């Protein structure tokens, strides 16, 4: 009887433990950090044996179709990546749940990244990142073409001169100086040049009214960037058939590549690629560059049935020593970037990675002061539609800016401040 009682109690304990275990669905669009995310999830599950996490990598286009289901409470995901362009809409529609993350665990997170996800005194997202727009260079090509490798300050003119020297034919293939096909002025990579050129923001806010602000700085930056393709011919154009910019850089066919700090794991696919960071170029004499960083965040859909476990995963990923160290050791910027700078630099020896931290001090979050505009995504889409004609060589900058200003303003006149009557 005693043995039977022990067995019964053991089975009962096992049943209770199984009943308490939950499975949460984690969704992201970022394939560049898949291996890192999977390693993080494994570490989290080991530290939290009552929670299983299933990883879901969803392509960008399909991702937002899935996210749209949140507004109907039909999402099957428990933790999702969110960007600031879309956050106000989903939050205002009741599609997101407030997080049960202790405030004391968030005190070290950059306030500028955290505050946009606070609404009505409640926190709806904890930012990942910072996801910084950076400059990568192919040092082998720089050496081959006799171009000095930039290590500290770099100007637009110096970058352009380097791009010209780095554009040539090699073994029957075209080598391009820079990936300007990715630098459309109204998107995050191109916007990094706009802010570095003295840009103040594409939309002006005054009380509850908004006005288009495509000023001379915007037009000048758009012209500089499009000239890289159509005047200076140091970049492939967006209509050129072939590999994407990152594939060309990976193959050693681009000398200067502007994208995000998250690309580091991709470069490891080519062990022969001699890459390094370079300073983001300044476009204003005597003033530092002001590139963009994205404050993507982890959120919990209101339809999640495992909100507590989801919040626990979000807190662990963004604040735990183990997770932050793992991310930095993979050459990615953790949420607490400054605290884990040493681990980050150790993961990228000889890559001039210190410039990433130098530029973060002056980096900008796009449209940070107009995130509560109800139809911001539609306004930005109108801008993109006009400026895309410049990028494909089908319109002059002045004409595109004129049309974009009109279309944007029509939409801005219809927009409202989210949360106001």
TrEMBL record:
This is ABC transporter substrate-binding protein. Keywords: Signal, Transport. Belongs to the bacterial solute-binding protein 1 family. Residues 1-19 form the signal peptide. It comes from the Bacteria. InterPro entries: SBP. It comes from Deinococcus roseus. Gene3D superfamilies: Periplasmic binding protein-like II. It holds the Pfam family SBP_bac_1.
């Amino acid at each position: 009887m005693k043995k039977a009682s022990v067995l019964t109690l053991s089975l009962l304990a096992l049943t209770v433990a199984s009943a308490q275990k939950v499975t949460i669905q984690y969704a992201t669009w970022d394939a560049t950090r898949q291996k890192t995310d999977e390693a993080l999830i494994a570490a989290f599950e080991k530290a939290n044996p009552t929670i299983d996490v299933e990883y879901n990598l969803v392509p960008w286009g399909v991702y937002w179709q899935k996210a749209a289901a949140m507004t109907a409470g039909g999402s099957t995901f428990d933790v999702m990546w969110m960007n600031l362009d879309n956050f106000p809409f989903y939050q205002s529609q009741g599609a997101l749940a407030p997080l049960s993350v202790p405030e004391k665990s968030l005190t070290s997170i950059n306030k500028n990244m955290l505050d946009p996800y606070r609404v009505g005194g409640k926190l709806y997202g904890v930012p990942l990142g910072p996801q910084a727009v950076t400059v990568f260079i192919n040092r082998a090509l720089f050496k081959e073409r006799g171009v000095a490798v930039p290590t500290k300050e770099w100007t637009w003119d110096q970058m352009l001169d380097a791009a010209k020297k780095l554009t040539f034919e090699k073994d029957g293939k075209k080598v391009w100086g820079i990936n300007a096909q990715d630098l459309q002025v109204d998107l995050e990579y191109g916007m990094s040049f706009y802010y570095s050129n003295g840009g103040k923001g594409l939309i002006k806010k005054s009380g509850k009214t908004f006005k288009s602000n495509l000023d001379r700085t915007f037009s000048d930056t758009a012209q500089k960037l499009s000239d890289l393709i159509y005047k200076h011919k140091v970049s492939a154009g967006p209509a050129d058939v072939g590999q994407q910019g990152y594939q060309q850089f990976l193959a050693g066919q681009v000398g200067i590549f502007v994208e995000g700090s998250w690309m580091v794991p991709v470069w490891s696919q080519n062990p022969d690629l001699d890459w390094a960071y370079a300073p983001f170029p300044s476009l204003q004499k005597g003033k530092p560059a002001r590139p963009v960083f994205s404050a993507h965040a982890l959120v919990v859909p209101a339809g999640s049935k495992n909100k507590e476990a989801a919040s626990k995963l979000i807190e662990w990923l963004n604040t735990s020593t183990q997770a932050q160290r793992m991310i930095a050791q993979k050459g990615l910027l953790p949420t607490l970037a400054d605290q884990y700078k040493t681990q980050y630099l150790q993961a990228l020896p000889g890559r001039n990675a210190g410039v990433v931290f130098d530029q973060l001090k002056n980096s900008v979050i796009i449209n940070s002061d107009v995130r509560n505009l109800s139809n911001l995504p539609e306004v930005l889409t109108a801008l993109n539609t006009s400026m895309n004609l410049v990028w494909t060589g089908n319109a002059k900058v002045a004409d595109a800016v004129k049309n974009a200003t009109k279309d944007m303003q029509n939409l801005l006149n219809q927009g409202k401040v989210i949360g106001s009557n």
